[in-house]
Amino acid sequence: TFIHGDQDELVPFGNVDFGKRMLQNSKQVSEVVLKEHGHFILWTHVELIADEIVSMMDGVADKE
Fold it and tell me: Which of 12, 24, 27, 41 maximizes the CB count within 10 A of its CB?
């Protein structure tokens, strides 16, 4: 899961597309775009990040 602010001044937003191309053979790739947010979403959207991690882990557990 790529979580990226579309106003990130440190990491170009285009890196999401690059990452998705590099993972094109992965079983699941998703993206969450935060409109009008910058680089520090890890600290400003803690609950969203945690929810995405839990969701990914639930998906792994379901496959076992």
Answer: 41
The residue behind tokens 């990226």 is 4
CA 60 – CA 64 distance, rounded (Å): 7
Confidence (pTM): 0.78
> What residues in the chain have per-residue pLDDT under 70?
61-64
Taking the C-alpha atoms of residue 12 and residue 2, their distance in angstroms, rounded to an integer, is 13
Amino acid (one-letter) located at 3 = I
Sequence-ordered list of residues with C-beta below 8 angstroms from that of 2, at least 6 positions apart, any chain: 16, 19, 20, 29, 30, 31, 32
CA-to-CA distance for 24 and 10, rounded, in angstroms? 25
Distances (CA, A) of 2 to 31, 63, 64: 5, 21, 23
